[in-house]
Each structure stands twice: as structure tokens, then as C-alpha cells.
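Protocol step 6 of 9: fold each sequence in the batch and record its C-alpha cells directly after the sequence line. For illustration, a two-sequence batch is reproduced in full.

Sequence one:
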Amino acid sequence: MRRSRNQKQGSIKAQPTAWRPATHPLGKGDKCSTMTADLVYSSKQSRMTGPRISSTNDIPERERTTANKRADREQDKNLRVCGCHFLNGKENSPCHFEWSKTTPSHPTQPTKQSLDHTYCTVGGQDTAVDPNGGAMEEPEDVVHQESCPVNRKDEGAIYSPARLSDEVIRMETGLPDKAMFSRVVGLVQRLEGSIVYAAGWRVEGMTMESQVFMALMKVRQNCTHLHLTQLFSCSTATVANVVNTFIHLLHRLLFNTMMAAVPSCQKNRESMPASFLPSASNCRIVIDCTDIEVAAPKEMDKAKMVYSAYRWMHSFKVLIGVTPNGVITYCSSLFPGSVSDTAITMQSGLLEHLEAGDMVLADKGFLISDIVPDGVSVNIPPFLNNGKFTESEVRATREMARNRIHVERANARIKDFRILQMIPSHLRSSANVLVQLCCALVNLQNPLIKEISSTLSVN
């Protein structure tokens, strides 16, 4: 076996030992913040990654420093040296830190890199190691990055709505301001003692305000459960329990209670926009259907049923009805995407709310004149018969489009809730509740029509 260039003549031969930094687990381009020190034992010169060592005096400075640091440890492949010790680059020797606030290598305001240099992995465990060997106690002035469970009660880490501005509340929940959010929380707090959680156990580590805020964030932003655990410092089981419980609770409070009936024509006239007068002064409701995309079912017959040939996607359809002032007053259950608008209107139960003298505004797809109750008129745009609309038909179409645009704008607000952008398979059973809850939350937003904003109030 050939001698290394750095080996002295006449020195005692020793088992070839070399130190080398380990490679990055992802391959080339080691950019990690820590440097791994592997002690490689090999009897073949071709596998050596450093000079052959024959005595202690011939150990290079970098190896000697590492060996001194690990003198109290058995040298094996699990030894680690943090990259913080290599201040002059990985090609130079590691250095030791002095436990002092004035030491330049140990800043007063600890960073992530400076926090981790006291921890070196030995046998897969994190242990504080003294640079001179042996275990030691950490200084009080060093604040380490904590690795506590995510369900730790830490009020400082909670994404609390009390600390957020109106703009953030509007972004995260869809509600216009903190005052409206407080009203929703007040409704929930009335039932605080009688709430039965979906998982069967109560959540005690969070305030009622934070739980409502978490559920609204899920509906508005469709945040993942892991994201919510980081914002609210809780476990994924707690997030699932809170979200499932309060989505159904808010649906019962805001939809079942407040949207149970369709306002009468007399009630609508109190806040009727000028565009509906006088031709549509008896308008009771403006209706339209909208599609909500869903994940394609695995069963072929169900996938065919929910596929919408008009939208070219698998979807659910829902019938939305708004009053002339733009408030959503009716939201049907969900129907498969292949069902026609006329069939949905017939089966949804909307016709039971209509009375003689009411007018319904709709588009051309609602051929329901023969199924509505007696005395109810249906106003839809005229069809093209002779290749050209007459002047009166153009005027009627334009006026009707100006009145029907409000239901389109309401549909757009509903779809601003990101949980409705695409309903996955595991939420398909709760799709009805989600859509109807979003309709109720839209009613709590600022009015669609500024003209009648002063006539509307939330009691």
C-alpha cells in the first residue's frame, strides 16, 4: 500500500481513517445549514476521502478539532457537526463558540442558525454538547427554537381575530368588518353551553371567537387543516372537530333561521330599486341556476349524472333567488349537473312560496309558465322568431337584463368563497350545507345595490 504525501517517514502505520463531509440527501449542490461529519473506515486506499493518518500529530487541524469535540463520544457515522462552526467556509477547520453575548460569532439576537449550533445529533438524539467535551447546561440568554407539539396552548401564537384589522377580517371571513363578525360570534355564544361537537369531545383550549373564525376561514379561503394548525397552535384533530361543528352550527343559525321564508311583494317594495319601477313593481323574486364544480365520482352512472354538457364539467346545480334589492332569499338543494333548469324549479320547492299576483324574473332556460301557480307571471326575455327583434322586444330585453343582473352578481359573490371552487369527494355529502352557508354569508356583506343601502339593516 502506498504512503500518503503527508505521512512522515518511519511513522507507525495505523488503520486508515479519514474525515469527509457527507453529501446532501437530495444529491448534488449541498446547500444545507449543517455539515455532516462522517468517520469513514476503509482498508482500501481507493475508498479514502482524505490523507492517510499515521499518528495523532499528523491529524490535520480540522480533524483534530472534530476529534476533540467528540472525545466523549464513540466515533461512528451518526456524529454530526453543525455548519455554524464552519465560519470560514466548509473547506476550513471548524471553530468553537464562546458562551458570551459579546462574541461576534454568537449574536445577541439569536437567529435560526445561531440557535441550532448547540445541538448535534448523536445516535439519532439531540444533545447539548460542551465544546470542551461533556454535557452542559444552556445559558439563560439563549432562546432556542421550540419543538413542542402543535396542540400546545400558546396564546402568543394564536391567529386571534381580536388583533386583526377590518381588512384582514374581510379577507379571511368574507364579512365586511369586525362589527359584523362580532354579531355572528354573539349568535354562536348564545348556544355555547349546548353545542355538541362533531367528534364527541369539546374543544377547551380555544375561545369561541377563535373557533368561529377558524370555521369561516375554512369556508372563505379553503385553508388546509395543516395550515390552520400552524395559525391557531392546535392539532389537526382539533381543526377537523371545530370546522365540522361550526360549519353546521352557522348553517343552522344563518340559513335555516334567517332564510326560511321568501319576502312578499309588499316587503320588497320598501327597498325597491328605481329600475324595477313601474314595469316590475310586483316582482317577488329573480331566479337563476349556477354550477358548482365537483370531483368526478368513480361510479360511471353517477359520473354521467353529474356531468354538465353545457359547462363541460362534473358539477352540481343550485337554484338561487334574489329579491329586487339584491338580497339572496332562496337557495335550493343541490341537483346533478345534467338536470335542466325547469326540472330544478319544479322539484326545488320554490313554487310553494309564490302567490297570485307575484312576478318571477328568469332567463330563457326557465320554461315554467305552465307549472307556476295560478296568478303568477313569469317574465323571461323574448325569443327570436322572424330573424330580427322588434323595437319593443329590444327595449324589453334591455330592461329585463338590467334587472336580472343582480342575481348574476350574487352568484359571483357566492363563488368568491374558495371552498366552492371545486368540491372534493370527501366534502360531497356536505355540499348542500356549504353552498347554503355561503349564501347566508353573502347576505351579511355590503349591499349589492348602493342605491338602497340606506334602507337595509341587519337585526
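Sequence two, same batch, same settings:
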Amino acid sequence: MSTEEQQAIEQFAAELSEFRRDCGAPSFRRLSVLAKEAGHSRLAPSTACDATRGKRLPAIEVVIHFVTACRRAAEEVGISLDDDPRLRPTWWQARWTATCRARHRAKIRPVASGSAMPSGPATAPNPSEGGPSASDPVAPRGPASKSPMQPQTLRSWTPELMWLPNVERSRYLIIADAGGMQVPALASGTRVAAGPEVPGLPGVVHDVDELCESLSRCAPWLTVEILANPLLAQAAAVLEAAAREVDDVLIVHVLGHGYLDDEMALYLVVQDTDMQRFPRSALPLTQTISRLRNLSRAKAIVVVIDTCFAGAAIPQSLAADSGDLFILAASSADGLAYDRPFSLTGWFAAVLRAGIHEFPYPMLPLGLVADETARAVARQPSHPREQKVTVFNQGDADKLALGINSRTPRGDVVAAR
């Protein structure tokens, strides 16, 4: 472990220790009891102690449960910490994210003069970093030649198993919040004061443009609706309308800042989100997926989540007859989603635009595009270990023919479902 990495982890541990002292210095055993009373059984006394020792960075779930227990301990003894930003789970998630970024920077190998180093969340895209670019006809494939797609993987995606969405009864809905930055020709407004927990996301602006271009080229039959920098009520209304109107395939693609509440449920920060009123002022993505399934008549629901902690929105259990559901998450439930060149949406758009030359059929199934996207993100040089693209599928949603495979001659498309 480098000196810079160790210092970042020790600083974070010191901040946790200071917060515990300010909350009345409850014992680690007491913190464990308070966490269990709140339904959080993973905060053992030893785990709480380790979080403050600075030997390694605790998991984000441990941090949230530790802070929640400290807050409850302060209430027990009558300590008031009104207006202290450390009471907000989002404040600690921003600090944890910054520590992860510092750890990642410490691990990156030096690069040649004149080229940029990959950076963490909320950083501007840089073509020299090797990320997907709209100007490239084919997405950079990096070291993919050392790890070709296996034949058995390709055989599992035959045209006989794929199906096309009904053009008139399907929709691709993009909800993007760029942290207060304007999305050219799309933005409905900007946040007046984003604050340290909501930095601007130039990569989101770039990725929305690339995604729209890829869809227009490779899936021109899809009806694409874009909601950029929305208000909470606006985003909720559009999602509900889409759920009620679409009865074949509903695809919802979300980009922006993702934060967790005390119960590890995922929320999207939107234009009018007030971090002091979090999570009430943010869009509840975990609940949204359940609500879509309850409201929608769609035969298949596809959700792409390009936020930190995106895996937290994946249902823990589903009934066997609950319909077709596919989720592509930029990270695990306790992991970060980094900006370019590790952007999920950027590579999703690049794979769709470039096609997959090992796949000999004219249409690309959703599951294969998702798998290749995950591979493309993971094989980037200096890929951060905190980002693990996660795929969830139930039913036949993964066999949806998402777009034209530009790497093969265009032949007969598969039959509509």
C-alpha cells in the first residue's frame, strides 16, 4: 500500500473516530447493539473498531451503519448536533468516495508525457484516456484480443432465441442528471448550488450524446425519450406515465449521482434535491423498479443504472412469475461507478455502435451487449477495483434484440415477438 493510499484511509478513519467522540464516545459494543436495533446486523463490535483503526477502508455499508449507530447514541445521551453535515449519510458517502478516488490515484501507473491519467467520478472525459469516443467508428478494444469471447457464449445467443420489441408499444427512457451541468439542447434547468456532495458530471453530458447517437444508428425503431436534469416531481411523473402507457418493452436508462439511505436503498440526485432533506428530495431508484413492475403492463422491463452503488437497486428476491426483468448496473451495491474512461453508459453506447465482430448474426441481443460492456469496462488500464459492473436477469429480457450488429452484413432481422 502506497503512502498516499495509507494516508487517505487513515484520514477517513480519524474522521469516523472524531464523529464517534462527538456523539458521546459510545463503546463499539454499544454501537453494535444500536445497529442491530435498527435492523443492521453486520456491524459487529470488531467491525466497528476496525473502521476507526485506519488499516483498510471499511465497506460503505459499514460506514453507513456506523454513522447511523453513532447518531442514535448521541440522541440517547441528549447530544445535539443540529446542522452538522456529518449527520447526513450522503456526507460520509462523499468522503468515502473521495478516499476511494485517492486510493485509486495512488495505484495508477505513471503514463507517458502528454497523456492524461484516468480519474475518479465527476471528471471531464478525455479522449487520450482511451475511453469510448463518438469520433471513433469502432470502440477501442484494448487487450480484448488476449481474452476472446468463448464459442459457447456466442452459441447461447442464436436468432431463434432472440425477439424484437414491438415498435409502437415500446420506449427507451433516459433520465440524466449531470450534477447541475447543462446537457446541450436537452437540459430543462440547472441546480443553483450543487454543493460538495453533488459535483458536476461532464461525463454524463458526453455519454447522453453518444448513447442517443448509437441508438439512432443501431436501433432507429425505438422511441427514445430524454429527461435531462429533471425535477423530482417531473421524473416521477414521466416514469409513472411510461409504466402505464408501454405494454411491450420499457427500457429506463438512468445516469447521475447515486446515494444510499440508512437502509442501503439507492436514490438518484435530481435538480431540486436538497441534501439536507435527503432522501425525501431524491428519486428512489430501488423503489422505482418495484413500482414499475407493479404499474406497468410491459412484457419486459430493462433498467440501466449508471450511478455509484447501482447494484443496490437490484431486487433481493422475486416471484417466479413476476415477468421479464433485466438490470445492468454500473457497480455493485457497495461500489463506485467511475466516470470516463470507465463509464458504463459510454461503453454501452460504444459496443452498440461498433457491434461485436465475433457474433455472426445481424442483431445484437441485450444480454450480449451487457456482457461485452462489462468486459470493456473491466479491461481498461488501471481499472478501479471498486467498480464491478453487475448484471441481473429474470425471464427472457436478456434475449431482446437491442440493435443492429454493424460488424456483420445486414440480413433478415428476427421476427417480432
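Proceed to step 7 once all outputs are recorded. Observation for sequence two: The two ends are 53 Å apart (CA to CA).
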